[in-house]
Amino acid sequence: MKIMKKVLVAAMVLWPFMAYSLNDQPKVDETMVAKIREEGFQRSQVMDIVGYMTDVLGARLTLSQDMKRAQAWARDKMEKLGLVNAVIEPFMDYGAAWDNEYFSLHMLEPDYQYMMGFPLAYTPGTNGKVTCQAVLAEIQTKKDLEKYRGKLKGVAVLASPLVAIDLAALPQGFSRRTDEELKRLEETVIPPAPRAAPPAPVNPDLVRPEEKIDFFKAEGAVVVLQCDGGSFGIVRGFGRPGVNNDKWSREKDLASMPIIEVTPEHYNRMVRILRRNIPVKIEVEVRNRIGESVEKASNVLGEIPGTDLKGEVVMMGAHFDSWHASSGATDDAGGCAVALEAARILKAVGAKPRRTIRVAFWGGEEQGLNGSREYVLKHFGDPRDPKKGVTPDYEKFSVYFNQDYGAGAFRGINLQDNEFVRPIFAEWMKPLRDLGLTTLTIQSVGSTDHVSFDRAGLPGFQFLQDRVGIGGHANMDFYDTLMPEDLMKNAVIMASFAYHAAMSDARIPRKTVK
Questions:
Q1: Distance CA 362, CA 220 (A)
Q2: What integer pLDDT is reported at residue 196 of this predicted model?
Q3: Which of 509, 498, 502, 507 lies closest to 417, judged by CA?
Q4: DSSP secondary structure string, 319-357?
Q5: Which residues, 6 or more positions from 159, have their beta carbon under 8 angstroms from its beta carbon?
Q6: For residues 264 and 232, is the Cβ–Cβ distance under 8 A?
Q7: Residues linked to residue 283 through DSSP beta bridges, in sequence order
Q8: CB-based burial of residue 114 (10 Å sphere; 0-12 exposed, 13-18 middle, 19+ buried)?
Q9: Is the dihedral of CA 304, 309, 313, 316 positive or negative?
Q10: Is the pLDDT of residue 8 over 60?
Q11: 304 phi and psi, to 5 degrees?
Q12: How many whole angstroms separate alpha carbon 255 and alpha carbon 502?
């Protein structure tokens, strides 16, 4: 077995020359591109698909009831569009399910105001409606804890300092990538060095977020209010401190306390009032449902079957999970809708790909690329791990295409340090350049699901996108922030790239495994 693994690793080094000779001229099927464009632009369903995802299905926190409902819909939708082998595939234990069922926050005194916010995931509720005084607790060091000992029983703790709001962003809005920016990206020929910073030295005097929450609860506080963003009207929040380390533990969820993220202008108003030594009274109610046992999280997959090379696979997809404060339109229902629409287009134009084209809606991306990582390890293995090695399907994999960096238009593709694909992608881009797809940049990007493939030595690519819209992880990521024309273009591009990868005589070349 050890000898076989060494042979496989050696094969990975030679792979680019085995799979796709640079002397081969990548072929573009102009007739098929025309059919894809006609279907994608004249009979598009992408906005109908993403509209159902965001308006009807709503937020999709991994393992939540909404996510389970959405995944069942996605599997059924894939089948209705003609995809085969549609499946909800579990990938790992994911702790206890969590759902927010109700939330309400108001300032009652010295003046009434409805407060905009939402509870962090994996926290308990308030056990009914609570009316209480608010106390500002500015804690950084362990010495600061003593200032508040014995003073927090029955109160709402404001745990963040006054938040600096980015006023410059108000008149600027959002801009597309400029020609100059795209030119700089394309002319970067040497891959930038990784920017991983050395870990900061641990200061034993600083109070960790988990320690703050433990202190507030031990002192008898009833709820924590905080603010971690500096944009008007936008609330950004995730899960309670430490939740990824304890693997979404039901026991830790119940042992925590209600933690509410509040929009900066509302949070700052309370802080300023308290700094005047004027009391602030609030009313809050949170109802959260915490699952009874550990459950498995899942991905959703479906296929367009291949023909003479049906054992080989081309993949396209995006993560289906979102955070819970909004319906995750740009992060990343838009990406899932693009991938599904690309598959619909290929079915509608009668494409008969040589390789199987597989669509993936990943779970658990927001907590660390969990769904795609576990999928890759299970189905393809990892040549860098001598204990695991690779599976037979590793040799049958061609490429994965991803959309996640918002829902802006594709302007090119990040080559992920893989020079071997440059001439191939450049040829495929030619009939799509009028859509704004003009840039090939050697740079690598991270933080989304193509990385799971790339880390295993498999070709995985994230398109270079315009950064438009509100952005994810926030309370305003709804359907209305999407730009229909951008998603229509993206679906056409993804369909064309997936089709040509599936029809090519050779699989997509791989960069050298390091």
A1: 40
A2: 64
A3: 509
A4: E----SSS--IIIIIHHHHHHHHHHHHHHHTT---SEEE
A5: 137, 139, 212, 216, 224, 225, 226
A6: yes
A7: 106, 131
A8: exposed
A9: negative
A10: no
A11: -100, 115
A12: 51
Strand 98-109 vs strand 259-262: parallel, antiparallel, or unpaired?
Answer: unpaired
Tell me: pLDDT of 332 over 80: yes
Q: Whole-angstrom Cα distance, residue 174 to residue 486? A: 14
Query: So what's the pLDDT on residue 189?
Result: 81
SS3 412: strand
Of 387, 390, 363, the closest CA to residue 455 belongs to 390
- pLDDT, tens digit, 9 for 90 and up, residues 373-398: 999 999 999 999 989 899 999 999 99
Residue pair 438/181 in contact by the 8 Å Cβ criterion: no
Report d(CA 50, CA 467) in Å as an integer.
18
DSSP 290: E
> What pLDDT is attached to residue 2?
41
Residue in the structure block whose two tokens are 């459950």: 295
DSSP class of residue 153 equals: T
- Determine the pLDDT at residue 234: 86
Q: How far apart are CA 461 and CA 418, in angstroms?
A: 10
pLDDT digits (tens, 9 = 90+) for 275-319: 999 999 999 999 999 999 999 999 999 999 999 999 999 999 999
Token readout for 366 is 């927001």
| The amino acid at 283 | E
- Beta strand 410-414 with 113-114 is unpaired
Per the listing, tokens 């609330």 go with: 235
Q: Which has the closest alpha carbon to 98: 208, 218, 247, 215? A: 247
Phi then psi for 428, rounded to 5 degrees?
A: -65, -25
Strand, helix or coil for residue 284? strand
Provide the token pair at 438: 């003009």
- Tokens linked to 231: 């944009």
DSSP class of residue 178 equals P
pTM: predicted TM-score of the whole model, two decimal places: 0.92
The residue to which tokens 């991994």 are assigned: 62
Which residue, among 80, 79, 81, 60, has the nearest Cα to 71 in the 3D structure?
60
On the CB side of 184, how many CA atoms lie within 13 Å of its CA? 6
Length of the chain: 514
Please tell me the distance from the alpha carbon of residue 192 to that of residue 123, in angstroms, as a whole number. 40
- E strand or H helix that includes residue 414: strand 410-414
461 SS3 class: strand
Q: HEC profile for 194-243? A: CCCCCCCCCCCCECCHHHHHHHHHHCCCCEEEECCCCCCCCCECCECCCC
Separation between Cα atoms, residue 115 and residue 117, nearest integer Å: 6
Q: Which of 235, 299, 240 is nearest to 263 (CA)?
A: 235
Spatial separation of the C-alpha atoms in residues 229 and 211, rounded to whole Å: 21
Residue type, 17: F
pLDDT at position 7: 40
Model confidence pLDDT, tens digit, residues 191-224: 877 766 677 778 888 999 999 999 999 999 999 9
